Amino acid sequence: MHKHIFVATDGSESAERAVALGAELAATFEIPLTIGHVLRFGRLPKELARMAEAEHIIDTVQKASNITLGLPAGPRDSDLFSSSHMSSDIVQGITLVGEEIISRAANRAKELGAKTIATMMVSDDPADGILEMAEEAGADMIVMGHRGLGRVRYLLAGSVAQKVNNHAECTVVTVR
Predict the structure, then answer these.
(1) Strand, helix or coil for residue 39
(2) Domain residue limits at 89
(3) Are the CB atoms for 126 and 38 separated by under 8 Å?
(4) Which tops the pLDDT comparison, 148 or 114?
(5) Is the dihedral of CA 15, 17, 21, 27 positive or negative?
(6) Which of 105, 141, 155, 174 is the most buried (most CB within 10 A)?
């Protein structure tokens, strides 16, 4: 029987499915749920910047804060997440985007019946950050999404889900 569930989210569709599963399990078994997000201050994939834009996360952050991320109108590249543009506003913006992702996930978990919900964020390698937060939370189960990266990309870069699965000292559930 599990006593604490940790869900990793980056705001993607597969992460949203992981949040839903983690929340449903936490609600069913009346156990605590911790939702974590890994902040990435280096170069991020363009799809993450586009996902943040598509979900209006960047606009929400800019409206809710006194910072201007200085992004041009229209489709945005991954400049926000580029290490060559790391002003204090950009660092704050990335942090606020992470907080928005966590907030949305926690609200969704509440809607699905999870009673005890905590949130965490770290800045780290994604797999290392997930493992660190899960351990700090005292989780005995990690639930995370799986991005269907192609075989070639998997062989070159490795998979966050695979790394977590290989190094976790607890049960890991990967949601597709």
Answers:
(1) strand
(2) 5-175
(3) yes
(4) 114
(5) positive
(6) 105
